[in-house]
Amino acid sequence: HGVTENLQFAVRQAIELLANEWVDDRRRRKLSYTRLLQHEALPDGTVDVTAERIQREALMFVYRLLFCFYAEARGGEMGMLPITDEAYRLGYSLEAVRDLEQVPLTPATEEGTYFQEHLRQLFRIIHAGFQPGAETVDQQDLAFDTMARAFTVRPLTATLFDPKSTPLLDRTRLTNRCLQQVMWSLSLSVDADSHSIGRVNYAELGVNQLGA
89: left (phi > 0), else alpha (psi -120 to 50), else beta? Predict the structure, then answer.
């Protein structure tokens, strides 16, 4: 499907899902969702959590997903993510979890964190990069297998993928239930005429549309 204004609504929906998951996670752990404990204080010493702060982090998280959707859809044209490499596509790509966006979850799996762990690893690869043979601490932590050495990712050291941009969400348990809904909202759309569900074709996005 083409990109329409429905995608803008989907972005807002995804932000709400992530922000509400922060609240739900704090409630599950019987912690305040408006104030951090002293040992949880942010790097600047802040312990008060505002809706604006959570919204900003959720928006950053969604921007990361949009970037990955776009970069993988454009494939080799952008040269950012090696989506044509089998090891990357099957093991580390956003496309790999996109294939699970409509898989029914059981009561047990919907509380799991597979989506979160996969995305966390992908975001780290993009931020730190991966150069075969250039073993850094970050790459050792990622525990790549030998297949992963077939591809190369240049580090994107911009604010977008910097872990410091999402300190609150990074310490939040984002369930499969939440992130599957986020992926569904950003990945699929309903055709206004046929009412069929299809994938949003991010390859058709222009720069202006992506910005909007």
Answer: alpha
Q: Is the pLDDT of residue 193 over 80?
A: no
Residue type, 2: G
| pLDDT for res 137 | 42
Q: How far apart are CA 188 and CA 122, in angstroms?
A: 21
The answer to whether 176 and 111 have CB atoms below 8 angstroms apart is: yes
User: What is the rounded CA–CA span in Å between residue 85 and residue 91?
Assistant: 10
Exposure on the CB side of residue 100, measured as CA atoms within 13 A? 19
* 133-185 pLDDT per residue, tens: 655 545 445 544 544 456 888 898 888 999 999 999 999 999 999 999 999 99
- 74-92 b/e with 16+ CB inside 10 Å = b? beeeeebbbbebebbbebb
- Type and span of the H or E element at 190: strand 188-190
d(CA 131, CA 153): 7
Query: For the CA atoms of 160, 164, 169, 172, what is the dihedral angle to 10 degrees?
Result: 140
Amino acid at 100: L
For tokens 């990712």, what's the residue? 153
Q: What is the pTM of this model?
A: 0.86
Q: Structure tokens of 51?
A: 């809706």
Look-up: residue for tokens 């790549």? 144
Q: How far is CA 145 from the centre of its chain?
A: 22
Size (the chain), residues: 212
In one-letter notation, the amino acid at residue 121 is Q
